[in-house]
Amino acid sequence: MDIKNFINNEEHIPLSGMWMDNYDPATGKIYGEIPSSNHTDVESAYQAATKAFPSWSNTPIDTKSKILSKIADLIEENLEDLARAESQDNGKPLWLAQSVDIPRASSNFRFFAHAITQYASQSHDSTGRNTLNYTLRKPLGVVGCISPWNLPLYLFTWKIAPAIAAGNCVIAKPSEVTPVTAYLLGNICKKAGLPAGVLNIVHGTGPECGQAIVEHPGIKAISFTGGTNTGARIAATAAPMFKKLSLELGGKNPNLIFSDCDYEKMLHTTVRSSFANQGQICLCGSRIFVQEEIYDKFKKDFIKLVQELTVGHPMSSTTKVGAVVSASHRDKILDYIAFAKATQKNTPF
Fold first, then answer.
1. Is this model's pTM higher than 0.85 or not?
2. Catalytic residue at 264?
3. How far, in Å, CA of 100 to CA of 60, rounded?
4. How far separated are the first and last CA of the chain, in Å rounded?
5. Model confidence over 202-221: pLDDT tens digits?
6. Distance CA 277, CA 257 (A)
7. Active site residue: 248, 292, 293, 308, which one?
8. In the chain, what are the domains?
9. H helix count then E strand count, the chain
């Protein structure tokens, strides 16, 4: 599948003519091309968004709500196609995309479709001063949304849905590692009746395409989910420009296990929280601290359950652990394993 940018409700090849390969993580084979967009493509998207903003920001709430609800409906209607695309592009098991990623993407649009109908402004009477204080919330204008590769459509829609529900126009960049469902979303939004220019999707790398979004003087806010170092660079660029920022960055989540826990529930939860989506979730536990009294028992039981996990092709219904997202990520994991074996006397495997 060859991906294109989605600008002003139309598909566009990158203005530079530059493309990148898209890899199937389960096989390591190239199965499509992705635009390698830069500042010229971002500028084109910005012009489309700027043109759309006056009309979209003044669109009645019930109209916006109906469009967002229609997007949610169409995601549900296309669940199987979207789940298969997500599984192939990301490497996660198909059943996981079917049961979590795609339904949640639909729910994101449906939630904000309803949320905007419940909005109320606030006012406060200043007794004895003959004044009234009131609060109004208005859209900012054109905003940038940059999403990660671990939950591609799930997190992409979690940024886009509230932004357009609030009346903003969006320039969105999915991860270049997992671009397919973002590409498919553009056509779904167009079919749902979202006006041209309200959502623009540009594909490319962080240093080229992402940076062009962050540093664009007309883009008023940035929502980013990804690595801590990248977040620091975004903050360094955006802060002097006084842009609004939302940064959800990396973490090292600990599992704290005490001897008085519900042991069986803890054990299965720890396995699931360590290896769900191949361990590629910001909420996954990456460190396990166990009270000494139950350490040996926990280690034995934990290893046994992990060894029972079925590692296989993402499309297989029996697969519990699919493919990690990329060759570079695989190599990073192997480096950690090698480091552990070289530095720990009692490596469990």
1. yes
2. no
3. 32
4. 40
5. 999 999 999 999 999 999 99
6. 22
7. 248
8. 5-248 (3.40.605.10), 253-343 (3.40.309.10)
9. 12, 13
